[in-house]
Amino acid sequence: MARRAAAGLLRRHLGPLAAGETLQARGMYPKQYGAANHAFSRFYSIQGQQRSLYGFRTNVETDDTQQSARMNFEVQKRSFSSAAAHVQRNPAYSVLNSDDVSYFKSILGESGVVQDQDRVAVANMDWMGKYKGSSQLLLLPKSTAEVSKILSYCNSRRLAVVPQGGNTGLVGGSVPVYDEVNGILTCEAGCVLENLSSYVENKGFIMPLDLGAKGSCHIGGNISTNAGGLRFIRYGSLHGSVLGLEVVLADGTVLDMLTTLRKDNTGYDLKHLFIGSEGSLGIVTKIAILTPAKLPSTNVAFLSCNDYISCQKLLLAARRSLGEILSAFEFMDRHCINLAMKYLEGVHNPLPVSPYNFYVLIETTGSDESYDKAKLEAFLLRSMEDGLVADGVIAQDISQASNFWRIREGISEASVKVGAVYKYDLSIPVEKLYDIVEEMRSRVGDMGQVLGYGHLGDGNLHLNILSTKYSDKMLAQIEPFVYEWTSKQRGSISAEHGLGLMKAEKIHYSKSSEAVQLMASIKKLLDPNSILNPYKVLPQSVLFQKPRVTVIFKAIQDKII
Amino acid sequence: MARRAAAGLLRRHLGPLAAGETLQARGMYPKQYGAANHAFSRFYSIQGQQRSLYGFRTNVETDDTQQSARMNFEVQKRSFSSAAAHVQRNPAYSVLNSDDVSYFKSILGESGVVQDQDRVAVANMDWMGKYKGSSQLLLLPKSTAEVSKILSYCNSRRLAVVPQGGNTGLVGGSVPVYDEVNGILTCEAGCVLENLSSYVENKGFIMPLDLGAKGSCHIGGNISTNAGGLRFIRYGSLHGSVLGLEVVLADGTVLDMLTTLRKDNTGYDLKHLFIGSEGSLGIVTKIAILTPAKLPSTNVAFLSCNDYISCQKLLLAARRSLGEILSAFEFMDRHCINLAMKYLEGVHNPLPVSPYNFYVLIETTGSDESYDKAKLEAFLLRSMEDGLVADGVIAQDISQASNFWRIREGISEASVKVGAVYKYDLSIPVEKLYDIVEEMRSRVGDMGQVLGYGHLGDGNLHLNILSTKYSDKMLAQIEPFVYEWTSKQRGSISAEHGLGLMKAEKIHYSKSSEAVQLMASIKKLLDPNSILNPYKVLPQSVLFQKPRVTVIFKAIQDKII
């Protein structure tokens, strides 16, 4: 495309986006539509209307009905990638009895101990309807002290506990504390992310994370699962934003690490162990988190590229030229766009229909509307002149910006309408990221349709394989190939969704055996009876292997000394 | 000050700063002058000219001369705050013998095993001349495999090891790998920070950290001490920037966590244990780190405020108005300025002499020179109109910018010239941060001069108490008051300098006993013979207490099962 023509074509689509309004508008999509993509990691936080100050539930696993855990844990549908491991109930766990229930009632009162089968069933089912737990008791603690008492008791009785949050509302008593000078929010784990966002936005700040499930997910669950989401490219991981935590350990010990300091080099930084450990090392009860200043100007561009190498070069150029205002760099292949246009209502392709292979959404967020837009325009013109961008538009109003984001965030929703979806959430170095999509496409052939999209700026690919119905044959084409391939590239088999039950046995694809062994040692140190979130995160084989003789010898020797 | 007058006065000082040059110019100060302030945490990284691929030394502690550790570890001068704890040598450690030396030579060759007393003496002394170690052997491993063999041997023999880096040059073979698309640098621990900075700056990126000691400190030491430094306010902690590590554990196990992924939620994020653990849990051998894009435009303003509350309000306003371009917010009280003017050569106060109580240095870094400067000017004018700023100048050229930074970074250098300096590095919530300075001033009265300055944007106060000579009476006025006061505010007694030997026994001022117990448990898990960096970070009492009976019972029980 000639230099003048390219500039002209781009210019034709350009238009201003009203300052101040777009940030709020952007907030709408995840809430309305984005859940399917981003809420995946919040596997324990969807159902029900229960209210609890702390916003997590403690499901005591039981065996009263003599149903085997194998039956209870079996996969309901073979949707969303591989079948979960069929879990054999570990006989080391005790069976709940009426004395236990009485004890919990003495701590929490009648209303805090739920035995009603319907309510418990809701808590036992994950939001996708894929996994069903076998817990028969639902506990609703209201304070750190109650959590501590419950865990202390369960640990001594060896009753397994599934920490759960996310589906309870923010109650009046749980008011966060905000330090405006330092920009630090301190709150209880049960606060809903969206409420916290509104709370700090009123003070001129934003939460460092934003995700589709924000209307229902709890900050405690976000921390426990190390949620990524839409602001990751700009504000980074929760390991950088979280300043302090209060955590209750498996034996009931309250671990106070709730500092509100940006800098603290006194001893080991223990809080990081609990960020992303999926509730298996302790239950997060309070959080102190750094909040960035709210910036008033947002611009969104929707672009097409002819090939993947152009997407990569565009990312590099965007990092350099847009620098401090770049806040999103999302990519989709044309299969995604075609699907979105077919299945999503009210969505249209902002670019002329043509054989572009890739689409990129770029968002900037800054403090000056006119400057930011001028900068984005200049960058896009230069990118077209350099041949990186084939065509593009900048949203002229909130409605256009909404449409751009709706395409990107609606892909997951559109995928489900085809029939069966095998979903993978991978981290892969950017230059190799699209190779797996193409290899997968040739593997499945006519059996299915392969979509590649995701947070390119973070090296995070969402790989979806679509088919009209589930089949073992298809699964055999996908797994273990997808894990082995990712492992070979030193990628991650779970970029932002965690391991949970589904991938606990697959951790070795992303972590060395020495690292997994050390994780198991830390799990045993913090939760020696393995009562917290049983069967998840780590392979059962490393958790329940016989201790090595050297370890026992060491302990005995210490006693003698 | 009337609205017009304020604007006029400020305008008088305004002037442009050449784009592109300032960033480089800024890089000069830390190298030339900043070491005294920022290199404090790099206690093992100063002396000598030894070259090693991995850039750390393994000092095997010995007792050949029958000198007690008490003598060897005794404080050389009672400078820079409290005396170090007098350490009793732990008899559990073995004494080095000639077989050990032969073994090390078989691994490292003659040149890798240093017994020369002068060379060993250099490695035994910290850069301030305050602490002297008792090691008698210096080992210079060149690869991860050699480190692994050394540690495996020392662990089996119970020989204590002091990991050391920082004073060895970058050798040709140790070329870092840079991934420009993803902006990720992978390198060996022995790379000098300044060399890495130059390396990535040539590619259009910067290191996420910068500090005074950058010309000599090693990236491995930076990670192990969780170095803060000058870019902290903008790019945050190393916990957010470090993507992967390779670490050798005490028993020689090589723990490969060297991923180059921005997102990876597969199991516990173990690397954080080693960031800031001061070499006491393992030896960092390789690093993958995220590098931000290099921004061409830097502006520096030097301002005065009448009171501390104005400094606080100014910080809040700067966060909101300067948003994404704010890269430093440093403050100094007038005692600091007076001292700098008196003792630093070639430095002048850019503001008219007047009774201002506080001074603030604000730096912005962005991608557009004219826009950034206009924004900073507008912000400063507004702040003067609001009465937050009494007077101020924006640097008009590199020379002015240098002068502004030289004042701030020269305070530590100027302090030393008075005679005796008691130095503290505290994290305190910003609104309380200056209270300790005033309380200290009333405590020491005529005995000394109290300076308060630091990274206000990070809540990090450098508190210096100056006197003509050291005295126990003065120390008694300062300690334990300073620790107790900080503890009461839930502050940190070591914001960026670590605990080392000096504050190992003082950790309880900043961490709960449950947290310290858990740190000790993790230390015992990773380094059961406590061979790594002995006597440091954690109190000896928690490390060497008898194991509780329950723990032994648990291990024996496991064996029976």
Automatic annotation (TrEMBL), chains A, B:
One of its GO terms (molecular function) is (R)-2-hydroxyglutarate dehydrogenase activity. InterPro entries: FAD-bd_oxidored_4_C, FAD-bd_PCMH, FAD-bd_PCMH-like_sf, FAD-bd_PCMH_sub1, FAD-bd_PCMH_sub2, FAD-linked_Oxase-like_C, FAD-oxidored/transferase_4, Oxid_FAD_bind_N. Its EC number is 1.1.99.39. It catalyses: (R)-2-hydroxyglutarate + A = 2-oxoglutarate + AH2. It is found in: Mitochondrion. GO terms for cellular component: mitochondrion. Its main location: mitochondrion. Belongs to the FAD-binding oxidoreductase/transferase type 4 family. This is Probable D-2-hydroxyglutarate dehydrogenase, mitochondrial. It comes from Oryza glumipatula.
